[in-house]
Predict the 3D structure of the following.
Amino acid sequence: MERLAYDIVIVGGGAAGLRGAIAAAETSRALRIAIVSKVYPMRSHTVSAEGGTAAVLRDYDSFDSHGFDTVKGSDFLADQDVVEFFVRRAPGEVIQMEHWGCPWSREPDGRVAVRAFGGMSVKRTAFAADKVGFHMLHTLFQTSLKYENIERFDEWFVTQILAEGGKVAGVAALELRSGTIHAIAAKAVILSTGGAGRVYEFTTNGAIKTGDGMALAYRAGAPLKDMEFLQFHPTCLPGTGILITEAARGEGGYLVNNKGERFLKKYVPEKMELGPRDILSRSIIQEIREGRGFDGPYGHYVGLDLRHLGEEVIDRKLPMVRELSEEYAGIDPVHELIPVRPGQHYIMGGVHTDITGSTGMAGLYAAGEAACVSINGANRLGSNSLSECLVFGAEAGRSAAAYALTQGPVGSNPVTALAKAEETRIFDGLLKREGGESLADVRREMQHAMEEHVGIYRSAEALEKALSLLRELRKRFDRVGVRDKDPFFNTELTATLELDFMLDLAEVIANAALLRKESRGAHSRTDYPKRDDANFLAHSMAFRTATGPRYETKPVTITKWPPAARVY
Amino acid sequence: MAGAPAPKPASATPPPPPRSVPPPPPKPAVPAPKGSSKTIKLRIGRYRPERSAEPFYQEFTIPYRDDMVVLDALNYIKDRIDPTLAYRWSCRMGICGSCGADVEGSPKLTCALYLKDLRKSPVTIEPLANFAVLKDLIVDIEPFMEKLESVNPYIVRGDEKPIERGEYRQTPEELELYRQQSLCINCMLCYAACPVYGHDEKFLGPAASALALRYEMDSRDQGSEERLAAVATSHGIWQCTFVGECSVVCPKHVDPAGAIQQLKARAATRLMRSMLLPLSTR
């Protein structure tokens, strides 16, 4: 087995991973950095982010305002020291992206333009039309090509974090093209693999978002934090789940019911369409339940009305909204309502890290949606996630670099032997397995169980049901046979590895949701409809055991914003 | 450079991949299937290097809906009929650039093409033309990645302004000068459509050239000299015969053909300058 060795291995090549790679590369030219990604970096799901990147860029704005909006949006579950750090670092990151060539939209005087966004009390969201993630990803990827000490392993699927004595030693990765497992020794590993939306049936997330990094960390012994908090975005196209950006409302779009009413006046009268996502998604469900939704081939929906904005504004500021509506919903938003309904979009939880990106396991770091550094708490504000990828991607890169510089050479670590065992598990175990169960059936049923029972509204009864279904599905997974026996570019094999990861995460999510007997942010328990600070103003921490997840709690750090009622 | 320099065990090394199977002769169109109980046939160009040295076609019949895109059909086959079918996809919203394939002989994003618009059955789906095929619809994009890297696709500056001093000002009009070329999603449909690339795989090609122009036209960039030198090589922009198919198939309206013409003009100007001006003022 070929043994590769790097100072830092970054798993995932989206915004957080690329930003981390550049930060590490700039820390020291002596460091050798590898980005290992199961897709070419420009395919990473950052590419689908649309609306913008939040940062304090104007004199009328302040760090306290961005900080408080974020904390209030989080329903007071965010760690406030981390939020304060985040809001101070975000502007420099937006400017750094500008220096690297990101085609930000501009004011007439040439400054980076900002727009309004949900839950943000002033205009502070920088944007590049409505293809912000796309432009950020390509800018970061192309910029990363300048650095000679960054190498890439594209279409390599990391299957395991290798560790010795509780300390990171590297990763085992399946090179898709050759169908071989490689050992990559590393002093530090950064997980930046994004979220886990594909655990759900109706999601804005691309096919690759299977929570790999979260499952890798969990299996290596690092805890997952706040996994019960999933964000359901209010405006997705029925049927496909394709996202219609919040920028559509930031630029003045309305949400209307089948009577043509802007129904949000009943739910969030102060903020209307610019209310936070958790509340808007619940409002839409309520409106539909009371019979004021539209009926379509994919169930009920409400209307997103952009007609009053006019063709010129739509084409200049929301070209992708028009493109997606025309191509995937067959309607032109210049003349018609866009059909929308809430769908899974983001996971606030993830691999627990401290403010430096460290997971607590020596040498293991995480950043971006894969991580939970905790700026999002129980509900993320739109446009904070791209900023988070930049701020904490860079921070994790610098922390991992500093750590790697203190470590001796990786020459003697035992990764080859460890990866041999992984090779046996995958090629002699999984690949040779014969079984009557269908991978796609188990996956579809998992997604349906999560959608039905661990969705926007939850209850003990539904969550118990989900857990019992998931236990059954785990047993069935063990009987899933892989029909494609060729090791080389075997996408059935990688889909099986992904489903294995997702089943772990689904169990962690459903259990965490069951244990949190309150409603906070995006976690709405019909049997516990109130927030309960006395008992639940705390993070949940899930540790893997042989019999399933074991949970601990961790106090929330509160610096200057004492928990208060969350009214918009 | 992407991927590993690692030598692979001989047993896992695939045989040299063939160029894509040639497109079949055009057939008369048949009326689109209608109604919910209808089925549609897909004829898929497959290549399984560990099983057979030759590519082959396989037909699948699947239930048809009016709102199905080609990618939905592929997913139906993989999930319910043949899990061994290999292809790339992710965002299913036309932005990640993974899912390109030749459909009825034309390069398309499979996530953005409705079966109903093809009005025929069977629908033939093959790997993107002009690329080496790795397995089924998966083609080797490493040569493209090398071309992309070769044009210095990043801002080059002699002086770097400190972050604390804020952004480089760029007016909306200046942004407009390169905005169109910045929209490329690297889906490589343009390479599949390019006859020049078809017989010279070293040709820099449409997307990489458009990316070069994107940075050329950016008011923040000072790297023109080296970048123009990188595109005006013997396999560079001068090879383009302005067939224009790349711009026809581009799903994001990047107009790489137009971009190459602009680059030619800039490169020519640079050449003239170097011939006419004394060395000290170049």
Observations:
- Chain A touches chain B through 75 residues (CB under 8 Å).
